[in-house]
Amino acid sequence: MEIKTEIITIGDEILIGQIVDTNSAWMAEKLNDAGISVYQITTISDNREHILKTVQAALDRVDIVLMTGGLGPTSDDITKKTLAEFFHSELVLNDKVLASVRKRLEERNIRLNDLIRGQAYVPDKCQAFVNEWGTAPGMWFETNGKVLVSMPGVPVEMKGIMVKYVIPGLKDKYRLPAILHRTLLTYGTFEAHLAGLLEDFEKNLPSNVKLAYLPSAGRVRLRLTAKGDNREELTLLLDRLEKEMMERVGEYVYGKNEDTLEQIIGELLRKNGKTLSTAESCTGGMVSHLITKVPGASDYYKGSVVSYANEVKTGELGVPEKEIITHGAVSREVVEQMAEGVSTRLKTDYAIAISGIAGPTGGTPEKPVGTVWISVKAPEKTVAQKFIFGFTRMENITRAAYTSLNMLRKVLLNESFH
Predict the structure, then answer these.
(1) SS3 letters for 170-208?
(2) Which of 309, 378, 316, 381 is nearest to 342 (CA)?
(3) 135-187 pLDDT, tens per residue?
(4) pTM passes above 0.85
(5) Do 91 and 81 form a contact (C-beta atoms < 8 A)?
């Protein structure tokens, strides 16, 4: 039987956009790994009536409700009192929670006051989880065979309580199925094209397997999800289905599961003992940022010249001024010279160069906003391609950066371009 969960996040600061709810995404991933399906994610205000109605509705439709937020010591944190009311409980002092709160305060030379002491009062109908990472305890309630767990909204505190108490507790209480994922990462095509290539494959999938298309900045993740009681059988099934998918869309696949383009090119460069430099105009250093996100990138990455102005292209990279005058800064001739210049200046085997019109202004009929030229220089050749990405500035910057990494990957693997 499928066990369904709802995640409820509480906080006006989320609803007004002051903070981003990262808790729900993390919780959903961990629940999924444990074989628990997330049925719905809800964000509500710090309001008694809103909390009461939302909790009742959630318990009516799912087996497990996980809540975060509203457990602080101040007057606007009303979740604990509201849950005590919902479960017809009295708030009572929990000695273990109080001892933990005292210890944490003593370690930080903070005096215990009545507000913080109030954190140790919990509903008498819950199992309290000591918060080793903060002061507000987690609270586990059970009603009519269902579970509700309330946790602090501070991410490090929520994660600690989830890993140490909640996930193990749910595994003990429920007989959970296995939920396995297999993801192929593609670049250089679009969702509808992939769907066409996989149409017959998708129609013939077993009933316990689903295929999802997840597009983002020129990339499309193809995620297979299989559910069942036997993990080994599911693994073999996904092995077979992944092979069938590769036969249809393999030419667009650059990696699997948690791979990243920046990690893949790093592995290829390190394996071959080669070095890389970058020359960026419209991307303003984003390619450099992506590359250096990978630990150990200093093994193969020398550095970058962010040649945003034309005088930097000519003065630092040696691009002849006449090339810019004749062809424009956004052209094959200029990006090839940029790649050659940064490779020579930083003495690297490979180089990436990018120049484009990120927008929203600067476009012309001949070179509209989103026009980007990218060049990759290798020891034996230099390649360049023109792209027209989109209309928004960040979309153009992001897609240009990732496209340059994919071009380098293809050069390193001696693959053809689409």
Answers:
(1) HHHHCCCCEEEEEEEEEECCCHHHHHHHCHHHHHCCCCC
(2) 316
(3) 999 999 999 999 999 999 999 999 999 999 999 999 999 988 889 999 999 99
(4) no
(5) yes
Residue at 6: amino acid letter: E
Rounded CA separation 278/305 (Å):
6
> What is the C-alpha to C-alpha distance for residues 405 and 9, in angstroms, rounded to an integer?
37
- Extract the tokens encoding 272: 């071959």
The residues pairing with 25 across neighbouring beta strands, listed in sequence order, are: none
**Of 175, 164, 111, residue with least CA distance to 138:** 164
Q: Domains, the chain, ranges and CATH?
A: 4-173 (3.40.980.10), 178-256 (3.30.70.2860), 261-412 (3.90.950.20)
Spatial distance between the Cα atoms of 409 and 261, rounded to a whole number of angstroms:
8
Q: Residue 285: is it exposed, middle or buried by C-beta count within 10 angstroms (0-12/13-18/19+)? A: middle
Cβ count near 174 (within 10 Å): 16
Dihedral angle over CA of 318, 320, 321, 322, nearest 10: -170
